């Protein structure tokens, strides 16, 4: 089915300390995202980049700050919220290219305005379920999913509309293999379903994907928040926080293809591509291939 896809770059690396993901949107565009999606029959509109402050322009912060660059990240997420909400109102699919994972606070806050009707699949090596009280780093990209469930700094939980944006039954994490003690406890307390890589290994990605679809069966739409570090570093070397033992190339594609089969995918974030750490734009090319699978590319 042909759709209108509107692309937004979010060149933000405020949510973590390792520089380079601000160049992710350019790398993904250069890897051919627009022609790949157009070849599937979709209308693709590139709306340019959301304005993001440079870290060098940020005021000095104490090293012990529990949520670094919080005001600026909240401002960017508000702009993302407005852009994604506009797409939602006009029947277009917003696709946000990161940039670090904190941008998803803005996207998900917008696309979940109809209570209980959107399932959010968080494809990530990490839980992103810290708060300023539990974080070992102060990096906001590790707080994004928790903020969407109403946990953490009010500047993040209140983006766009009142908190929480998600109920636990609407959120699923897949690919997890690096969870901090505090976020592990919070994920269990909130009863968020987490498919670890052990479960992927034991059950197989097709079984895991179908279990995800069963949990989302009663929901109208699915938002996919794809962090490229969910894949094994051997597949996706250009990420800021690589963790061994991730999804293989075919596992990731199979997951995207099964999601596409539902016809429910209504929005996408592609985050944490770091060209500085990449090998000839390999990770950005993989991001394009996975997005194409999610929007209809088939082997046969």
Describe the structure.
By secondary structure, the chain is of the alpha/beta class. 35% of the residues lie in helices and 17% in strands. The longest helix has 20 residues, at 70-89.
Short structural description:
This protein has 300 residues and is of the alpha/beta class. It has 11 helices and 8 strands.
Features:
single chain; 300 residues; alpha/beta
Distance between the termini: 16 Å
Strand order of the largest sheet: 2-1-3-8-7-4-5-6
Number of helices: 11
Order of helices and strands: EHHEHEHEHHEHEHHEHEH
Tally of DSSP β-strands: 8
Strand proportion, as a percent range, falls in: 15-25%
Largest sheet: 8 strands, parallel
Write the layout of secondary structure elements.
Elements: E1 4-10, H1 24-30, H2 33-38, E2 43-49, H3 70-89, E3 93-98, H4 104-111, E4 118-123, H5 144-148, H6 154-157, E5 171-176, H7 181-190, E6 193-196, H8 197-203, H9 205-215, E7 221-227, H10 249-261, E8 265-271, H11 282-294
Parallel strand pairs: 1-2, 1-3, 3-8, 4-5, 4-7, 5-6, 7-8
Helix pairs in contact: 1-11, 3-4, 8-9, 9-10, 10-11
